[in-house]
Each structure stands twice: as C-alpha cells, then as structure tokens.
What we know:
Elements: H1 29-35, H2 39-51, H3 55-67, H4 71-83, H5 91-103, H6 107-119, H7 127-139, H8 143-155, H9 163-174, H10 179-191, H11 199-211, H12 215-227, H13 235-247, H14 251-263, H15 271-282, H16 287-297
Helix pairs in contact: 1-2, 2-3, 3-4, 4-5, 5-6, 6-7, 6-8, 7-8, 8-9, 9-10, 10-11, 11-12, 12-13, 13-14, 14-15, 15-16
Protein name: TPR repeat
Pfam families: Sel1
Region (Disordered): 1-22
Amino acid sequence: MSSPLSSHPDLDLQTEPPKHLDFDETQHPLEVLAHEGDATAQEWLGAHYHDRKDYVHAARWYRRAADQGSAGAKYNLGWLYVHGHGVGQDDTQALTLWQEAAQTGLARAMNGLGFMYEHGRGVPRSDEQALAWYRRAAEAGDAGGQCNLGFFLLDGRGGAVDLAGAAALFSMAAHQGHREACYRYGHMFLTGQGVAADDAQAAAWLRKAAEMDHPAAQRELATLLALGRGGAPDHAQAAGWYQRAAEQGDAQAQFSLGVLYYRGLGKLQDIDKARQWWQRAAAQGEERARNNLALLAKGVRR
C-alpha cells in the first residue's frame, strides 16, 4: 500500500527553486530600476523571467544583481547552473555562488551546499559535510534543509537512525508547506514510525501533499479512503485520487485504479478501462497488474 519510507526523493526536490515575488506586468517599475542598477530590482526581474521559463534573461539579471553582492541572486543563479537552465551546466560555478550566499547566512544556500556534498556535485562526496550543511540550514529555519536532514536521520547517515528526530524535522518542514515533508510526515503517521500511528493525522498530511500533486501521497490517501481507515470507505474519493496519481505515472495507483474499474467501486464497472490501466502499470513492472492481465486473457473473472 505504501512506498518504503527510506527511499530518497528525486534530486531536483532537494534544492529549492528561487522564491519569487509577483508584480503587475502592465507596469515596469522594476525594469526601470534594474537598468538604473538597483540590485533588488535586478533580482526580482530575473525571477520575473525565471517564472516565464526565459532562463537566459533570468540568468542575465541574476548575474547583474549577484555582481553587486545580492545573496538571493547568487543562490538563484547557482540554481540555474545546477540545472543547466539559461547557462551551461556547471557545478563549480554553482558551488562558488552558493558558498558566497551561505556566508551571508542565506539558509537555502546552506541547503544547496548540503545537496552538493551529498551527491558529490563540484566537491568530493561527503555525508559528513552534507549533514553539517543540512543541519545549519535546518537550524536557520529552511524547510528544504529540515526535510533533507530528516532523511539523514531516517536513514542513519552520519549517525544512528533517529525516527523520532526525523519525524520532528518533517513536521517542521511540513508546517511550512514543504510538499515532500508533508508526504513523509503523513507517511510516518500511516506506518507508526517515529510517531504513534494515527490514520486521521496521516490522512490530513497526505491530503496536503496530494493537493500539491505528490503522486505517492495521492495514492496513499486513496488507499486510506478505499479501506475506510478513519471512517467509512469512500470509493468515489479514492478513485479520484488514484486517477490523479495514475495520470502522473504512479504504477501502484494505476493498478489500484484498474481494480476499482474492474469491481465498479467509485467508478462505473468497465473491464476495458481496468485492462488499460493494468497494461500501463504492467509496463512499469507492476507484477499484480501482469497477473490480472493474464487472468483476463484466460477469461477468468474474480
């Protein structure tokens, strides 16, 4: 029903995209100020282009602000170098920029350095250094740092496994709206690791992550609803969440959605749609889907 708690999230989830502020596109006060040399306006104008995926112009304005000492612009430009957006992918440039930003106390740059050391990006791989930087970011209140430090405690990297400590860190990050942390905190309530098992709390936090389109959270919330854990079974809601996760490519959700179609639970019974979802799940290696397809091919009905 649930994915292994110790599995690490995708690498992109460990670094935080720039924090952007919106402004009215029909007015151009930032552009005027940016051209006049205002570093804050240059950073915000970079974010304006970044939001629109115009990474070349974003990098140009971030660099101008960074050259004036803007820590936020240095972080943002480093993020572009890590991902190779608008600039050539260059871990060494990103490392330098994040080191400079971290020295000013920018917490998300500290988290970025933890990422670099954890994965050996631009520096020799070092769990000890990664742990130190994640801890500094977490203590400075950075949600990404709190979540990443939580993973280290969860897996016992750099020390003993500390499930309660991991849960506390996921909680802090989740209360800041960090999507992965919301999922992990909910999952811990679901499995009773680091906290007392609590289906109501699990559903609440999984729902927060699910609403932010986290596929595993959508699947696990759907399973709670389908099984009626914490209340009466609600197959209609379960089907909706399985559908959202399945459309994002989650193989387990594709299998479960096929089951609901096959049994007519929360969906009108539709063997063809059940087969289609099982085929998509089977293509990703979902063994239960393969077994069900084999039974369908033999004309077996369960």
